[in-house]
Description:
Elements: E1 8-14, H1 16-23, E2 35-41, H2 53-77, H3 85-90, H4 114-139
Amino acid sequence: FDAIRDRARKYTIINWGEYHSRKRFDKALRPEDFAETYELRFSKLPTHQHLEQQEYEAELLAKLEKRRIEVVTEKKQQGHVYPTKEALRKVVPGSLPRNTKRGTMRPIVLCSCLETKRRVQEWYFAVVAAYLAASRAYRAGQLDVVFPSGTYPPSLPVRP
């Protein structure tokens, strides 16, 4: 809404590339030494230059509301259901969703043959299962456990 209301914003950006390249030679440098401040100011749209600020703001907000209603109508026609205000208020900010589209991590296998993809996924999940079993035994104190090839024992302390 800053563009509509003719507000300017100031942003401070740290030039990390310059900081890291010069930090090697001067350990006393701080990121703040490479901070650059920019001001971002939006101008009116060329087709609306003739309008006063209040008229410009009202027209763009009306267009935004019209587009919002169109999008909501399209989503509802597609079967999308929006949560109620009460349901939204119950959500704890930052909490994880109860269920996601995918419950488990699946490896991405890029190939044109579905049979090959299935075999690779079977191999992957077999290695994961063998690693989990070996890891549990290793953490329980069995130090002679054999881990699948390409995997390593966990670095956590072992209980004797």
